[in-house]
Structure formats: C-alpha cells, structure tokens
Amino acid sequence: MTVHVSQDMTISDRLDHLVAEAPEEGVTLDWIMQHLNERAFGLFLLILALPCCIPFLYGIPQIVSLPLMFISAQIALGRRAPWLPVRLGAREVSKPGLVSLANRARPWLRRIEAISHPRLGVLTRAPADRLVGLALVLFSASIMVPLPATNTVPGFAVVVVAMGLLERDGILTLLGIVLGSAWIASLIFAGATLLSLIKAWLGV
Fold first, then answer.
1. 38 has a pLDDT exceeding 80
2. Could you tell me if 159 and 49 are in contact, meaning their C-beta atoms sit under 8 angstroms apart?
3. At what angle do helices 152-167 and 11-21 cross, to 10 degrees?
C-alpha cells in the first residue's frame, strides 16, 4: 500500500512520515519503494544515498550502492517508475536505523530545502534526466570503492541531485553533478599519479 501524503509536504517531512509508517520489526527496500508516492525515483535515491554521506562509515554505503546504481541506471534508460530485482528489494533496514537516518538527515535536508525552488526544470525531466542518470551511475560506482572517505562526497552529490529532482530545481541538480564529477576526476587524477609513482619507483 502507498502512503498518501500532502503535496505541500517538504522532503524532510516526507521522510519523517515514511519513518513513522515503518513497522517496529524493520522494513525492506521493496517496502520503502512501495510506500513512496509519485516522486519515487527522487525519494528512493535520497533515502539510499543519505547513509553514504556519513564520513568513515563502512559496510552500509557498499550495501546500498548497488541498488543505488541500479535505480540510477533506470533513470538513464528512461523508466518512469523504479523497480528492484527480488534479491535487492529484500535487503532489510531496521526501524532504529531509519529513525537514526531521519534524525541525522533532517537538519541538512532543511538547509537544502530553504534554498531550493523550481528553476531550470528542463534539467530535471526527460530527456535531460537521462544524462543525470548516467552521472548518478558513476557516482554510485565511486561509493562502492572500499577506501577511506570515498563514499562521503559522491553520496552528498547524489543527495543534492535527488533533492534537485524532487524540487524540480535544475540549478541544484547541476550543482550535485558538478560536485560528483569533480570527485570522480580527482580520483582518476590521484590514481594516475599513484600509478606513475609506482612505475617510477620500479623503474618501469
């Protein structure tokens, strides 16, 4: 069953509403997706990416990065509603984990909400949203890398993009893409530099 919420609700209020509806025994990713409204893509991206914003948190970002990449790929392919295969959809999230997530995210979401409003909407709908989906796939792949702090920046970039899609704010969406792209470029540069140093040290 889908939770019916007011269209005037802010994103942080929608997240609080979802947490309040969650049963005490916890929920699955399928449950979360089925309880979202017409903006399921943006809200699902937001919920998956929020844990990735926590610095030096290991395990959870790598768990959610695969469904995050899967959902991002669907945006790139032009799907109008998200879908998860059975194994990904069955992944569980505890009620205390959802509550903690909402409490951590609320102040940051409200700061973003305060500066966001509909503008440059062409960047948040078809066909431009397919390019946004491709960028999100890259950011999700970066989150999967099990290195220190590799999840925080791309996770925040996905959150900003998701907020942009939800608020129909093309400027916010573009800002998230620039942030995530800069992070990917820095990883590539650092990797190339390290490889050059190793080759020089080995005399290759």
1. no
2. yes
3. 100
